[in-house]
Each structure stands twice: as C-alpha cells, then as structure tokens.
Amino acid sequence: MKKFSAFILAVVFLTAPVYADVAVTVYNSNRALIKETRDVSLKKGVQTLEFDNVASQIDATSVLPKFLNNTSKIKVLEQNFDYDLVNTNKLFTKYIGKDIEIERTGQDKRAKLTGKLLSVQGGLVVQSSDKIVINPQGEISLSKLPEGLRLKPTLVWLIESEVSGTQKMEVSYQTSGMSWNADYVLVTNEKDTVADITGWVTVNNNSGAEFNDAKLKLIAGDVNIAQPVAMARNEVRYFKERSADVAAPSFQEKSFFEYHIYELQRKSTLKNNEIKQIEFITASKVPIKKVFTYNGTNNGTKVTVNLDFKNSKENNLGIPLPKGRVRVSKYDGDSMEFIGEDNIDHTAKDAKLSIYTGNAFDITGERVQTNYKISGSSAEESFKITVKNSKDTPVEVNIVEPMYRWTNWKIIQKSNNFTKKDSKTAEFLVSVAASSETVVTYTVKYSW
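The structure corresponding to this sequence follows.
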C-alpha cells in the first residue's frame, strides 16, 4: 500500500469551482458543446487564473473565455490546457533523483527508510546510505506534489485585470467523448391496428468531466465536423386501452438552423463514465398498418412484414423524430413478446415511417420468368408471380417489380392492375384468400 501526503486533498478543496450555470449540448457525432459560468476572484495586474474540472477530451482550440462584467477592463493574454494528471507512475517519475520516505512494518515493529529514488523501471530502486534497495516494501510518502502535475484537467489563463474582486466568467468549449442516440419502443394491440410508442434518449458521457445540474440540449441532424486528422433500454410498456392524450414532454423540440434541438425541461447531472436514459416522447393509440410486401428479385420466396404509420399530430405524434432503433413488441395474453426491430433515420413531422419487423412465416412468394425475346431496339419479357397464404385469414400483399434493365418500359399485358410507383418500379396490390394463392402475370416491353 502506498501512502501520499494529505496536501492532495487540500488542493482539491481549494480549487473546487463555484458554478453559477452549466449548459451541455450533445451532438450525434461524439461531440458536445460545454458552456459554464463560474465566479472567479481577480486582483489588479497580471495574474494566472486556473479553471479546473473541464473535460479531459476537450478541443483546446475551441475554448472561448468571456467575462460577463468589466469586459473592457479584463484581458486574456495567454491560454494553456494542462492535462498531465497525477497518477502513481508520474509521481514516481517526477521524484527520480529526490528523497522519498518508506515506512516498513515487520514483527510488530515499524521502521522508516529514507533514500534517493534512482529508477522506476520494472520497480522502485532506492539508494539509502551505502545500500541500493530494490522494490522496497511499505507505505511510501512524498513531501509535496511535483510541479507540472494536475489533479484534474485544467485551463490556465494569463490575465491582465484593471479591477479586483469577484467576476463572472463564461467559458465555452467543445469536447469529444459525449454522444447520444434515440431508442423507441413500439407496442402493438391485438389486431395490429394501433400502437403505443415510447421514445428514450441515451446520453453517454466519457468526456472525463462531470456536469452537475446542467441544462441539457440534444442536437439531431447530420452536422459536418471538419476532421483535423447505442445502449439499449430493455424496458417495454404494456399496451393499454387508454385515452389518446399525450403526456407533457420531458424535452421541448424546436428547429435550429437545418437541425432540431431537444431541450430537457429540467436540469440533469451527467457523471463521467455514465450512461443516462431519459424518456422524451410518449404517445398512445397511434394508428398503424401491417403491410406485406413481396419482392422476388431481392428476397427469393420471403414476404416482408412492415408496420407503417404517419408521424403526424393527428396520430398523437407530429414532432421531428431523431434517428434511432425501434423495438417492436406485442402482448400475447399474459406476457410481452419481442417481434422485431428496425432503424429509422431522422424523420420530419408528417413524414411516413415503415418499420421492418421481419419475414412472414405463413406467406410466401415465387417469381418465374416465363418468356424473353429481343428484337432490334426493343425487348419483351414475361413473369408469373405466385403468392401463397397459409394463414386462416385473408391478407393483402404488395408485389414489387423492379423495371431496372432499360429506361423506357411499358407493361403491355397484365392479369391485375398495377401502380407505377416511380420510373423503375411497378407494384401490384393483390388479395390472397385464407389457405389459398393468387397468381399475377404480366409482360413488359422495353425500348431503347
């Protein structure tokens, strides 16, 4: 066991900052903007001002100090960031060539060994009187904290002041090591027609600093960062037939430049090396639609299952949703069961969302090319698509057919009506009876 002098605690106490205000804005890109206001004591003349407990991953080039009063009478002459922090190896390294004291205990006797520290490579080497002692055992005491070592990362300014007394100082800086993401829990009702949706934000602080009672803002959007060189929540909420009223949000959303800000409506403490989760949206009875899709070109025989809904005020939502993972569950009589998950991108209000939950077990498809011929500057090909439904209830399936080979195409023969979704896609929406199958055939002509 190694023992160090009590002066270390005294330094911590004397440099403990007096916070007036702390604001933390966290971005999706492992970056945060910190703004702190502290009361600092100045005297007239040139002096050194220390500002500790800042993030160890601070971008020192982004630091902006500002005095809120007597601005014209206080000048910042120099700025330094000291991050050479105290640890055992650094303390010993700083004491090479200096005397240290080791208190050793043996057979109920205590003895002190005083000597010069010669080396710390592979263990301690101490010269005491005419002896060289290797790896001496005992409690080691050092006389003082070596110069150049810090207990905490510290900003140091050289200040020239024309006034004395307590001044309010605002310091802002950027730091890496902080990030946030959104997670959503969607719980469907028995018929998959409405859902309860809860959104959580997860804030991860590995910046090297703790921010007490901070005003917390989250920026959603793809912010570009010039290069100088998700947690998941397992909690789900059972679907309840409750009123469609939405609870007062924990976060207030507003537009900012080409992004969106989510501001927590209370203060929160962000500890270092902590993952904090906060509920930011909750909505009930959101109308949803289960959509079956068959794309034989991409998925073979699989029919995908999606839950579609609109992010609108009428659907008890209607705020921009930050990108994140959506976990979907359903109540199975006596328990909640997980049925799939998907990721969504940043989603504007009134935009539509489609959550892919997986592939249908009892619905399959088959796509067969039945004919192909080419003549001069045109070609024709024919397809037969069969959708089988083994369920005991009828379903609707959207058959997606990519028309990707040539720019100009026209369906010249078809067994079912279709919708031209875009310049390269045709869609056939078909009904398939219970324990039955539906066949779609068509011929498309390409020209170039």
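Helices lie at 7-15, 88-94, 296-299.
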